Amino acid sequence: MLSGAPQAGGGVRHRRWHIARVYLLDAQRFRTKLEARGVRIGNDTSVRVSDLQPAEIYPTSGPDALLTLTEAQRQALSLFA
């Protein structure tokens, strides 16, 4: 999933890549959770911050994260911060 800050309407603006957070989700479990809440799945599906927090692996990761990044991986991602 890629997400960014909301942009005002207007012309095309090009921006450098900026990675503030990385999330790793179990897609089947996540979809089941959303469907149980009645969320319609599609291109513009919104998710709650509370759904993403357990899946965060960068810049921090919680105890239930599916993957723990190495320090080298964190440093590589920080180049885009």
How is this structure best described in words?
There is one protein chain. 27% of the residues lie in helices and 6% in strands. By secondary structure, the protein is mainly α. It has one domain (22-78). The protein has a two-stranded antiparallel ribbon. The chain is flat and about 35 Å long. The mean pLDDT is 86.
Keywords:
81 residues; mainly alpha; two-stranded antiparallel ribbon; 3 helices; 2 strands
Fold topology:
Layout: E1 22-23, H1 27-36, H2 49-52, E2 56-58, H3 71-78
Antiparallel strand pairs: 1-2
- Low-confidence sequence ranges: none
Which series of helices and strands comes N to C?
EHHEH
For the largest beta-sheet, the strand count, sense and barrel status come to:
2 strands, antiparallel
> Helix count?
3
Quick overview:
With 81 residues, the chain is mainly alpha-helical. It is 27% helix and 6% strand. The protein has 3 helices and 2 strands.
